[in-house]
Amino acid sequence: MHTTDMSGNKKAEAVAEDPAKVAAFERRVANDEFIEPKDWMPEAYRRTLVRQMSQHAHSEIVGMLPEGNWISRAPSLRRKAILLAKVQDEAGHGLYLYSAAETLGTSRDEMTEALLSGKAKYSTIFNYPTLTWADIGAIGWLVDGAAIMNQVPLQRTSYGPYARAMVRICKEESFHQRQGYEIMMHLAAGTEAQQRMAQDALNRWWWPSLMMFGPPDDKSPNTEQSMRWRIKRDTNDELRQKFVDITVPQAEAIGLTVPDPALKWNEARGAYDFGDVDWEEFYAVVKGEGPVAKERMQARVKAWDDGAWVRDAARVHAEKRAAAKLAAE
Amino acid sequence: MDAIATYALRLGDDSLILGQRLGEWCGHAPALEVDLSLANVALDQVGQATHFLALAGEIEGKGRDGDKLAFHRDVMDFTNCLLVEQPNGDFAQTIARQFLFSHYQELLFAALMASKDARFAAIAAKAVKEVTYHATLASDWVVRLGDGTEESRARMVEGLEWMWRFADELFAMDDVDAAAFAAGVGVDKAALREPWDQRIDAVLADATLERPAARRPVLGGRSGRHSEHLGHLLSDMQFLQRAYPGATW
Amino acid sequence: MSDASKEWPLWEVFLRGKGGLSHRHVGSVHAADAKMAVEHARDTYTRRMEGVSLWVLPSAAITASDPGDAAALFEPAEDKVYRHPTFYKIPDGITHI
């Protein structure tokens, strides 16, 4: 899963840097060359990358919670195994992304601390609750669908470790969206109660999914710089439009209705016109006012705090054994 | 159900309930890497449950598949051992449960590979590789926690204390076990006790821990007499199947 | 909440995809010791049958060449075309060479 940069941060301020180095760097990036950890890079590039990759990693980790909420209640052995494997994948993806960010000199503990203290952001979508089994379908179909749309272009992002992490993630995620759609398909063709469940999930997840692409382009201050640096490869609005165009027919195919009265095929544009996203809600959720934001953070803090003695024990044990080995030599 | 079907059911129930318990950790483990490890173990257990429960249904021959068995029985018809239904507790308690059970499972499946019933033997041959890794993983954590900090040691001791009373049940042979063994299908579980003791003792010694004192065993899981914990686990696990009778998923 | 020195060290993970291939870098994991690093590497990087053998080594043990030296280190090889078989012109009729 994925988040775009939604922190609405200020433009990175200019630091005095050797113009020749900056120019050489910009040239390399413009030529679609990869930047590697030890290469020279502008400080703003480094900072933007750490922020974007760690936000992305946090989203994977927090994103485990809404779906994890249904592992124990998955309705068949097959669904249980699939969901468990999928949520485990999110842990792996968080791990890959933290590792990529660590190559820029920020430790995973520092990033974790930023998340738990509320300083770091993660995708707003995970601050909505999963109420029924259909939400697991909707998340796979819509949220992973939106994520994939964001992530595929990032396989060609300019920072090597990030691009490589994204290649692995995209490969692994290819089943995530399909399993979600399969759940929805099954529910939509099921009993009346199941159909209602599926439509209700689509109603609740549709708009938050559109929000996943981030604020509109005219309110996205970093887009231009990030695109020049190949940290981002399409604008928020371009991706959002693409998502709507691809997803609407998928909903129709299984008899579900996209909850947008303004939705209409525009023959001239060859694309769907759609209604306005509630940006006021979006910014409120970014600020931590999502319906279950507190529960999500509470769960992460608890896991981290409860695990402290385990992490300490393993470290102390390793030190003890290393010392004993040394003494024996 | 006849003895052989019940035998498969027991194997399936053990894996199912343990897999369900381990799944509860997903997203809440002490470190990201540990989250991945626990989920792998859980997935292996759910996979074993899928095979054994399907086999139980097949032998029974009344049209019940694995899901029917997993999601449409009540506590008294579940045949898992009491050990696997114990709550996760803290990480040490989870590791204690895994440690005792995985070594048992490894010995059990190694023996079950020689089953005269090719279906049991095939599942065991696949599963033995999985549980061998589980046993190593759990043993390594027992050593780290036992010989780690003062706090981890105290918690590891506590975890083993909690689980120890359920160890004897793993090796108990009742009529079903005896019949399955006599038919050349099942395993003489009593014979697994000695090698199990040796394995457990070796790891505990490495962990600088004492083996918990012997105590009156708590039995009953195989005949449906469970702890209070199982009912709650089932009400969670079976919720959708119960709330929407007749629906498929 | 955390201080950097308490973090489990970082390990680089190398995986042999199948017999006959060399180990290739696939990523990293945190682990308190080498055995844990192998277990974490296994649980993280081989969930889809990606490999048959793992190496782990502490990230801190890696010495890398300096990107600033790249020109001096690697460009001198550019004009040694005679090291490549295509440099040599052999008439069409000659085989097994």
> Helical proportion of chain C?
10-25%
Given helix and strand content, the structural type of chain B is: mainly alpha
Give a count of the beta strands of chain B, DSSP E runs of length 2 or more.
Answer: 0
The top level CATH class name of chain B: Mainly Alpha
| Assembly annotation | heterotrimer
Number of strands of chain C: 3
Distance between the termini of chain B: 27 Å
Q: Output the CATH topology of chain B.
A: Ferritin
Description of the molecule:
Chain A is an all-alpha fold. Chain A has eleven helices and two strands. A two-stranded antiparallel ribbon of chain A has the order 1-2. In chain A, a hairpin with a 4-residue loop joins strand 1 and strand 2. Chain A is globular. Residues 1-12 of chain A have low confidence and may be disordered. Helices cover 67% and strands 0% of the residues of chain B. Chain B is globular, with a radius of gyration of 17 Å. Chain C has a three-stranded antiparallel sheet with strand order 2-1-3. Chains in contact: A-B, A-C, B-C. Chains A and B meet through helix 2, helix 3 and helix 11 of A and helix 1, helix 2, helix 3, helix 6 and helix 7 of B.
Write a brief caption for the model.
The complex is a heterotrimer of chains A (329), B (249) and C (97). Chain A has eleven helices and two strands, in the order αααααααααββαα. By secondary structure, chain A is mostly helical.
List keywords for this structure.
heterotrimer, B: 249 residues, mainly alpha, Ferritin, 12 helices, 67% helix, globular, C: 97 residues, alpha+beta
Would you spell out the secondary-structure blueprint of this structure?
The complex is a heterotrimer of chains A (329), B (249) and C (97).
Chain A lengths: L18 H12 L12 H26 L8 H26 L5 H9 L16 H22 L5 H29 L3 H20 L11 H6 L7 H18 L10 E3 L4 E3 L5 H11 L3 H36 L1
Antiparallel strand pairs in A: 1-2
Chain B lengths: L2 H21 L8 H29 L5 H6 L10 H4 L5 H22 L5 H29 L3 H15 L2 H5 L3 H8 L10 H14 L22 H9 L1 H5 L6
Chain C lengths: L9 E7 L6 E8 L3 H12 L7 E6 L11 H5 L23
